[in-house]
Amino acid sequence: MYLPDTYLQHPIWLTIDVERVEDANFGITPKKELAIDYPAILDKWDELTLRYGFRSTAFVLGSFARRFPHAVQNLHQKGHEIASHGYDHQLVYQKPFEVWKKETALAKKILEDIIEAPVLGYRSPSWSLPFEKRYYEALVEMGFVYSSSYFPFKTYMYGNTIDKKHPFVIATPSGEITEIPIPKCFIPFSGGFYMRMLPLFITKRLFRCVTNQKIKPIIYTHPYELLPNLLSRFLSQVRLDKAYVLTFANTGESIKRFELILQEYAKGKV
Fold first, then answer.
1. Cβ distance 131 to 161 under 8 Å?
2. Alpha carbon of 144 to those of 79, 119, 127, 176, 197: distances in Å?
3. Taking the complete model, does pTM exceed 0.90, yes or no?
4. 3-class DSSP state for residue 176?
5. DSSP 127
6. Which of 98, 133, 172, 221 has the highest local Cβ count within 10 Å?
7. For the chain, which domains are there?
8. Are 144 and 121 in contact (CB under 8 A)?
């Protein structure tokens, strides 16, 4: 079983899905490109993690890497693992299988050309990789050795009904690959909407819940979640499906909560 160093070396695995807000699958359509300084946000992420002695895994979209190659290279040089988030953020199960394969291989090459090192990990956009062997076999053939695409909670868009708690190996005709599922304790809690909207005392209890079960906690976030008041700052510049308003609510809260959680894990209090 292969597990990345950023997973093995820390009491909590920090991950960030590096994409633009325009890439998200939640009904936001900018009227023009939003003036968001993504390299500066990633610098802030680096500063936060370093403050508590952590390095993270950055799952980077190929399309993002083409726009901001120096930001990706900078993360790599500062000790963060660079992994793939696919080429764009279209849901995997909405693409023809061969198209997905071609685009995923392209995204991997873009990242490897930038950092001049192998890219070993993959996370599908919005956890949308079908839990089917042919997809994992294709990842093995591309040179991936692990995936973090399994979300053990079924939603209208993504997720699985079986609660996989620990990393597990998937054997394919082309070789083995490790899948690292996102943990839950009754409900998901460690990133995205869940991290921002749940009361802090509940979030802390849920982190303790998985830790007490000897499950590695995993944080996941996105660059735009680290911006305070995203909606109010850019609402006039976007068309937003009202059904997804809460998806972008309370941004900026993530970075405060991450800091509190990292403090506790860094001090061994959890």
1. no
2. 19, 7, 17, 10, 33
3. yes
4. strand
5. G
6. 221
7. 5-266 (3.20.20.370)
8. yes
Distances (CA, A) of 34 to 29, 42, 58, 70, 129: 10, 16, 22, 19, 28
What is the side-by-side strand order in the sheet with 146-147?
168-172, 175-179, 146-147, 121-122, 81-84, 57-60, 13-18, 218-221
Closest CA to 234 of 13, 4, 20: 20
Measured CA to CA, the distance from residue 88 to residue 71 in angstroms comes to 17
Confidence bin at 86 (pLDDT 50/70/90): very high
Round to whole Å and give the CA distance between 94 and 104. Answer: 14
Quickly tell me which residue has 């809460």 as its tokens: 246
Rg (CA), the chain: 17
Question: pLDDT for 16-48, tens place per residue?
Answer: 999 998 888 666 666 677 778 999 999 999 999
Taking only the tens place, the pLDDT of each residue in 141-156 is 999 999 999 999 888 8
